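[#protein-structures] MJ: dropping Aldehyde:ferredoxin oxidoreductase here for a structure pass
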Amino acid sequence: MNISELKAKQKLLKSWTYEWKPLFRGYTDKTLYINVSTNEIKEKIVPAAMKEKFIGGKGYGLRLLWDATTPTTRWNDPENEIIIASGPVGGITQYSGTGKSLVVTISPQTDSIMDSNVGGFFGPFLKFSGFDALELQGKSDKDLIIYIDGKNHKIEIFEDPGFSVDSHILGEELTEYFAENEKDAKNIGIISTGAAAEHSLIGMLNFTFWDIKRKKIRLKQAGRGGIGTVFRDKRIKAIVAKVEGVTGNLNNVADLEAIAERGRRYNKEIKELDDHQCQMRKKGTANIVNVMSDYDLLPTHNFKYGSHDDAIKIHSDILRDKYFTLGVPDGCWIGCAMSCSKGVDNFELKTGPYKGTKVIVDGPEYETAAGLGSNLGIFDYDAIIEGNFYCDTYGVCTITWGTSVAFIMECYENGILNKERTGGLELKFGNSAAALELLHQVARGEGFGKIAGQGVHKMKEHFVKHFGADAKFLNDIGMEGKGLEYSQYVSKESLAQQGGYAMTNKGPQHDEAWLIFMDMVNNQLPTFEAKAEALHYFPMFRTWFGLMGLCKLPWNDVTPKGNKETSEPHKIPEHVDNYVTIYNAVTGSNIDKDEMIRQSERVYNFQRIFNIRRGYGLRKNDAQPYRACGPVTQEEYSSRSERYDKQLKEQAGIDPTKLSLDEKIAAMRVYREDRYEQLLDAVYARRGWTKNGVPTIAHLKEIGMDLPELMEVIKPLQ
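AK: finished. C-alpha cells for Aldehyde:ferredoxin oxidoreductase:
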C-alpha cells in the first residue's frame, strides 16, 4: 500500500490542541498524558517537589509510574504505563551525547521496574514540542498511531491504516507520511517495534534518527526488559514527534557560552585523541571486542569462557576495514562529535522475509558482536550483522537474545534439548543458520521460537517442567538475574563487576557499574571497602546520565591528556567538571560534584523502594547465577585450572593437590560465594541500607528522600 492509499484510509480517533510555550532552562514543566483505552489526552503541570527530587528523565518516569500503578499492577494491566522522558540537559547541541531518552515501565520479564536509555530524535523532539515527559496508559482494542505535532501544537490519535510491521520499513513509511518534503525528514522522530515484540516477552523499542548524509532513517534501541512487548500489548503501532526545526538554543539555557566552551574543549579531545584511544569514530563501541578477548572477558559459549582462538575473526579492525562506512557523521543526535553510531551500508540479507534486500544495519555495537557472536560460538561478522539487522527490525533486544540463545545452545549440547524438542533446529554452538531461523520463528510466533522468546528465566522453568532438566544446573548456567539476561561481559574474575551486575535495580545491565578493568585488570579495588565505594559512586554517577538525557560514552570513551596524573583517574574528573558546569549552565543552578551524586541517590533509592513495594528489592533478589561468579562445569574449571588452583591455594588457603576435580569446583564455589556475601554486606553498609538491602530511614532523611509513601513501605522492614 503506498502513502497516498494509507492517507486515504486514515481514521482520526482524537485530536487535541495545546498552548505551547518555549522551554525555560531545560524544562517545559509540563508532561503529556495519553490513555489509549479512552483516547484521553491531557497535559499535567510538573509539581515543584517532583522537579526538585526527581530532576528529569528516569526520575520523572519512576515518579509518574509509582503514582499510576499499585503494588499488584502487572505488566499487561491497562494501568501499567510506558513513560518516555529526556532531561534538562537533553536536546542541547553544543556538547556531545545529549540526545538521550529514558523509558520506564513494569517489565514483562522481571515484574519489577525497568528503565532503558536510548538515543535518537524522539526525546529531544518531545521536549521541543512542549513536554518534559510522555505518559502512555491503557490498552487499545485496535492498532494506533500517535502523532505529536510540535509544529502546529496538536496531538492526534488515529487508527493504523495498514502501515508495515517491522521497524526498518515502518520508519521510512511514517517519515514519508508526515514529512512535507525530504528536507523535512530531519524534523521527525519515531518510536516503533516489530513483529517479534508481539510474540515474545523480550520486545524492544526502536527510536529513529535521520542520517542527513545518507538521507536514511536509522535506529537506536531501548532494549532491555521487554518494553516493546508492553508497547504492542497496548496496541500502539508507532509514536511520531515532529518539530519545526532544531536551532541552537531551544532549551533556553542560563549560560549558552559556558556550554559551548566545554563543547569546544571536548570536540578538540575527540579530534586529537580518539584515533589513539578507542577509535569510537571508526569502530563505535565494538572497538573493545578484541580488548575483551585479550583480557579473558569476552563471553564465549554461554559465558563459560572469556576468550577463544577464533575471536580474531571478529576483531574490531575487521569492522573498521571491511564493513563500517567511515568518514560520515554517525551521531544519533545533532552536534555529537563522538560519531559512534556506526553503520553497515548495502548489506544484502541472506535469510528471512527480506532475503535479497540490501539494507543499512545499525551497528554492530560491542554487546551485539559479543552476544550474537562469541557467546554463541559464531565468529563470522556476516552472520552477526544479519542477526543484528533482524533483531532490530523485529524489535528484539540483541543483548537479551544473545544470552537467551547461548543458554539454549548449552542446554542442547547437554542433552536437555534435541531436534525433537526444538522442532528440528540443531541449536549447537556455532550454528548460525539455526540461530537465525530461531529468530525468524520468534517474529512469526511459531515453533520453538515461542519458547525462546520468553527469555532465560521462563525457559528454565519450562525445561524443568516439560523436559525433566536439573533445576540446579539450569540456575547455575542460566545467565539472568531478577529475570533479566546478563549483558556481555564475563564477571567471574571481578568480584566488583559481579556486584555491578547482580545488585542493579533492574537486573544485570552494565549501565549501572562497569568495574571490570578497575577491579580485575588495574587492581584498583583491592579491599571490600574499596569495592563498596566504587559500587556506591559509579551506579549513582551513571544514574545521573539517565536523569539528564545524556549518553555515558563521551564521559569515558575518550579521556583528556593528563587524566592518568589526576588523583581519581577512574572518575575522569575533567569530564565530571564538564557535566557539573553544563548542568548549571542549562538550569541556572549552582550544584557541585557531590550534589550530583545526591541527586542520583534520591532517585536510585526511590527505585529500590519501588521494587520493594512490588515484592522485590531485597537481599535475596541480589543473588547471581553461579556462572557469573565461578566455574560451573568440569570443562570450565579445567580450561583455567592453573588459575583456579592457584587461587584455591593462595586466596582460600586450600591445597588443590589433595582434591579431585569435583572437590576443587565445590571448594571454589564455597570460597567465591562467601566473598560475594561479604561484598553485599559492604555495599549495603556504604549505601546506607540494612543487611537485607533496605534503605534505612536515617539514610533517606540524610539525602532528603524521607517521603511519607516511602516510609510506609520500608518501616516494617527496618
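MJ: nice. The first strand starts at residue 11 and ends at 17.
AK: one more thing. The CA atoms of residues 577 and 593 lie 7 Å apart.
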